[in-house]
Amino acid sequence: MSAAFETLSELAEKLASREVSSVELVGAALARAQATQRTLHAFAGLRPARALAEAAQADTRRRRGEPRSPFDGVPVAIKDNMVQTGEPTTCASRILEGFVSPYTATAVTRLEHAGAVVIGRTNMDEFAMGSSTEHSSSGPTRNPWRLACTPGGSSGGSAAAVAAGIVPAALGSDTGGSIRQPASFCGVVGLKPTYGRVSRWGLVAFASSLDQIGVFTRNAHDAAGLLELISGHDPFDSTSIPEPAPALRSALDGDVSGLVVGLPRECFVAEGLDPGVLTAVREAVAELERAGAKLREISLPHTRFAIATYYLIATAEASSNLARYDGVRYGRRARGARDLTEMYERTRSEGFGEEVKRRILLGTYVLSAGYYDAYYRKAQQVRTLLRGDFERAFAACDVIVTPTSPEVAFELGAKTSDPLAMYLSDIYTVSANLAGVPGLSIPCGLVKGLPVGLQLMGPALGEATLLRVADAFERRTPWHTRRPEPTP
Amino acid sequence: MSAPPHPRFEVVIGLEVHTQLRTESKLFSPAPVSYGQPPNHSVHPICLALPGVLPVLNARAVELAIRMALATHCSVHRRSIFARKNYFYPDLPKGYQISQYEDPIATGGWIEVALEDGEHARTQRVGLTRIHMEEDAGKSIHDAAHVADDATHIDLNRAGVPLLEIVSEPDLRSPAEAAAYLRALRQILRYIEVSDADMEKGHFRCDANVSLRRPGDSALGTRTELKNLNSFRFVELALEAEIERQAAILEGGGRVQQATMAFDPATRRTRVLRLKENAEDYRYFPDPDLIPLVLSEEQIERVRASLPELAEHKCVRFQREHGLSAYDARQLTSSRALADFFEQAVAAHGTPKAVANWMLRDLREALSAFDLEIESSRLTPQSLAALMRLVDAGRTTAKSARELLPVLVREGGDPAALVRERGLEAMSDAGVLEAAVAAAIAENAENVARYRSGEEKVLNFLMGQVMRRTGGKASPAVVRELLARKLARETS
Question: Residue B341: which domain range?
């Protein structure tokens, strides 16, 4: 049996009608994951025995007519930076070698409470720092559309797992575009919710004020369903918004007439924007107009400082967040050090990869006495201005549309020697993190055989509108149904 | 007696006190605050800084911080910020301490400090610069005797315990004033139940900043910071040693270097730990895992309404309501337990002055004999009042009552029953008493004559004679009355 490429809702229906069992679905997902590990390498680790045991329990609940939710028994994957009791979490880093979590992230707990079965942890850039999933201690993940290309990053494993039809849905995290950019590169739906919508409890921190857990799915409807499941206030996260989980699927009525789509002029002239991507995005905008939406040019003047601002704030927070990996309590510790300083230096030198070290150094520098005001404080001021840009924009439009990424998936190694080029891959996505607003990427075309992503951004807590527009677009276009050739 | 102020320099001292807040759980974690647990038993994933954990602020700690701020006349800020202080140390699990830096919860207050220079009691107002909340670090154990190897072991039971840092203005002018300030601060903390402020358990720690300047100079001299002074005595000794060190440098024409100092109690000397130019850069920045602490006016007012009466107010009230002297009132309000005991005993007995006398003299002696505090004594205010009433009624003597106090303090019990059991009743057999009185009169004819000629003082001598004959068991009041009546009758 093949349930590959089926959506979450389709699988839920098949489970409800008992056409298929959870053990079958989870078994098939595990088999596909294992079969593609050598080529795709989407996973950092699988949990076959536990996943199949949980699937059997889900089947028992179904037989008794007591499913935990419509998603009881569906296979899903989580990014390797979300902890789950009794499972390793490595963040694709050598420094967390051997760490097994004694507790579970809130978002994962909510999946478990709904009966979803986690088949494994997806590969990522180390500590979510990167845009290509090449910076991983277990090796790079490849793009199911073209194995020579990266899947984007940092949640490249989750994007590839959904794109390759291994699982219908996966969780990722997005600090500057780490869900939306790989969703764009892999031709799937990727949603970064409003900051504070999904609890960060149990998400290994990269940059606390920017990190947000979100979802990868095959369509907007599934993204809505999954977000309903994992969002809502959590007292364990002080930055969690004190709002219950929103009802999202009911908003997907296909109607966008009268809706105002804002087109930031800064985002359609940016240097380095692939002409094919621009064409695909313009065509998508035209499709929205044909569906009854109104187009309005807007301006986000401070977005030109977004990348610089992002790399000051994100690295500053990261330099502090990653201080706990010191070899003292868990994870890797360098052997044979003669004193404490040497133990710290060698543990961290050996344990962290180059990109992580680069960002820790940068962040340490921007927080240093004498530089704080010029860098960190200034960046916070720009961030406030950028928030103002978005507030003004959303007074004039309902959603903002841009390309998700200036280009389609690039080849492995193309940017690893040029960090700045890699950073520019996030030029359209970092602003939503800085402003704390939701962003979503949906497939809107193919360029040279590779998917193009359309980014929709909404006001804080405006996920329903984003998903309504995305769903309406899907109803009118075939892009979300396109699949890569089966991965060998 | 402490050292007099320095003869050639003006001493300027400011203190930073860290005191442990009285909460059930830690500042950002549900792990219990405990003392004496085996290592690493009062911990939670948050205290261990496991990957993915987040801090959640303890609301009770905030309430206690507001309490202290209000009790010390500080402005409580409606918005304050938690910041990260970054440094690497094995007992600091996150690699940063969560503290408050640019925007603390409270600033700009003062406390009254009673200074007793022998007979001349005076009070001085000492300014408070700021009060803020922060978490404690864990403990590194290097002691081979404890851990049986030469490795360093880490105990994280203390990691994350809530502390209040209270920073004074440089208003203190001598080591004695510094010690008096610390006592006053500790008294307030205990009074309002914000902290046990127990130095032995490390609940109350002090860093001191000290500098010298020539009398009349307005600019401050270069200061040094004395770290981790963990007893009142050490605070005074360390300051005295550091003042001497700085004075010697300045007298010799040298310059004091800004530095962090440590005090060695064995040698009674201070030494440089590190110079200012080698100070660590803590890279403070607002903790992005915590939202700004925003307090409503109602919240602050609720805490204000819940504040108990402070010692300074109680002291004034005791003088006004109970007619006590300033000295007695200050003694009786030195701790809340003592003041509460006094008021309950007064309610049960009715004569404040008499209760004060019993408490400040006889009870205090009985307590110190067993090294007890009033709160650990088994004597209740009601039984003290009952004991005093037995004396008032002549059923026992003051002397007997004083003998009973240590028993009541240690074992408790009903004073009337104890008096009976121990045969401490005042002699009430009229026959025996009258015989003793008659004998005293008969044997002291000369003194009886002096009394009758108007020398009333002589009555005391005659009373003493009666008391001697009754073995001290007669009630002085009864004897006095009997004697006076008899002497008067025999005149007429």
Answer: 309-421
Question: Which one of B54, B88, B284 has the shortest CB-CB distance to A236?
Answer: B54
- Answer yes or no: do A368 and B283 touch at CB < 8 A: yes
Evaluate whether residue B5 is within a structural domain.
no
Q: What is the pLDDT of residue B492?
A: 46
Give me the interface pTM, i.e. the ipTM: 0.96
Domains of chain A: 8-257 (3.90.1300.10)
B285–A320: do the CB atoms touch at under 8 Å?
A: yes
| Residue B3 belongs to some domain of the structure | no
Q: Within a 13 Å sphere around the CA of A409, how many CA atoms are in the beta-carbon half?
A: 35
Identity of residue A228: E
Catalytic: A192? no
Does the CB of A316 have a partner CB in chain B at under 8 Å? Answer: yes
Kindly state the average pLDDT of the residues B8-16: 95
Q: Identify the domain boundary among B287, B302, B317.
A: B302
The answer to whether residues B124 and B252 belong to one domain is yes
Q: Which residue out of B53, B103, B141, B284 would a mutagenesis test of the A interface target, given it has the greatest number of A Cβ atoms within 10 Å?
A: B53
Strand pairing of A450-457 and A399-403?
A: antiparallel
Measured over the CA atoms of residue A422, residue A424, residue A428 and residue A430, the dihedral's sign is positive
Question: Domain tally for chain B?
Answer: 3
- The active-site residue, picked from A101, A131, A136, A154, is A154
Taking CA atoms, what residue in A is nearest to B30?
A: A236
**Bridge partner list, B416:** none
Last residue of a domain, one of B258, B281, B302: B302
Average pLDDT, chain A: 96
Q: Residue A277: which of A441, A477, A474 has the closest Cα? A: A441
**B441 located within any domain:** yes
The verdict on a CB contact (< 8 Å) between B45 and A103 is yes
Alpha carbons within 13 A on the beta-carbon side of B331 = 14
> Residue B118 pLDDT more than 90?
no
Helix, strand or coil for residue A419?
helix
To the query of whether residue A79 is one of the catalytic residues in this protein, the response is yes
In this complex, the residue of B95, B154, B285 whose CB is nearest that of residue A367 is B285
* pLDDT of B1: 40
Percent over 70 (pLDDT), chain B: 96
What pLDDT is attached to residue B453? 84
Q: Which of A14, A21, A79, A405 is catalytic?
A: A79
> Do B36 and B139 belong together in one domain?
yes
Judging contacts by C-beta atoms under 8 Å, the chain B residues touching residue A367 are 86, 283-285
Tell me the pairing of strands B204-213 and B224-229.
antiparallel
Q: Are residues B86 and B202 in the same domain?
A: yes
pTM, two decimals, is 0.90
Residues B388 and B451 in one domain: no
